[in-house]
Amino acid sequence: MRLLILGGSWFLGRSIAEVALADGWQVSTFNRGTHPDLPEVDAVHGDRTSVEDFRRLASHGPWDAVIDCIAFTPRDTYRGALALAPVVGHYVVMSTVNAYTGWPDLPLSENSARYECPVDADADYAAEHGELIQYGTLKAGCEQAVRQAIGDERTTVLRPGVILGPHEYVGRLPWWLLRAAAGGQMLAPAPADRPIQPIDARDLAAFALRCARQRIAGDINVTAPIGHASFADLVDACAEVTAAGAEPVWVDPTWLAQQGVGEWTELPLWRTRAGVWNVDSSRAQAAGLTCRPLRETVADTWSWMTGGGEAVKEEQGEAARAAEHGLSAEREAALLDRWRQLR
């Protein structure tokens, strides 16, 4: 079978390409050519904002399926999907749980309310709102853009939450691994048994390919099951695989908030709002999603980092967010010292 990946050269797109090639797909990719393409793919370079580039891409078809990892603005997504509609059998678009109006405050299912966004919206749409609201709004618009261009029966909308694994560029898991590798007492946000639902990029890739091959249409949340892992599983795995003797000190979350510790950024993956790690993904599980243990994701990411792997660096775009993550050593030491004085 022939597969087109919009993206395909870094993190999730790369994982999809690797899993697809191993599964026997003939793979084409479409991206700017900023990052190295896998040698086994038929790489077409172009700009996702260019209608002409998409028309040129369409001439390389047909494909049994396309997996869209670069959908960001509804207008560009709609134009691209419209150009590809005659030459693809099924369209899988990567959206996000941010498309729900209730994230991160409320438990979510596929029936939860989503943002409204016209299919002709550009990158400036909803710019007056906060970053996450703007991102979720645009992603909701991209979902509708694909449905309108391709048709409901040929469209799968996947809504993952946090994605981890080798080649991660956001810097969440890499920060925890580097911190554990430094050893010593390591600040960790209590409670240790707080459930978390990150999904390995390779498991998301395998499920996306399953949807493409079987033409599973509809909207599907793609996270690890609720209860699959805890924050302690994450921290302990980082300490174990780095083998530097890091010792977690579990600190009261209310106290951390009083100290101005930034959730999601200064302590990556830590967030106390009720809906962050309460996403129902039972529909995906019923359709064949399987999730590896979080420790395996942690170990493989550390192997990548210590084996010469380096997170993608860009001055702009999502890769720049890696610099926003994590406590400095000085701030962590000061917080731990204050916490000990209270005990």
UniProtKB/TrEMBL annotation:
SUPFAM superfamilies: NAD(P)-binding Rossmann-fold domains. It comes from the Bacteria. Residues 4-214 form the NAD-dependent epimerase/dehydratase domain. InterPro entries: Epimerase_deHydtase (IPR001509), Lipid_A_modif_metabolic_enz (IPR050177), NAD(P)-bd_dom_sf (IPR036291). Pfam families: Epimerase. This is Reductase. Coiled coil: none annotated.
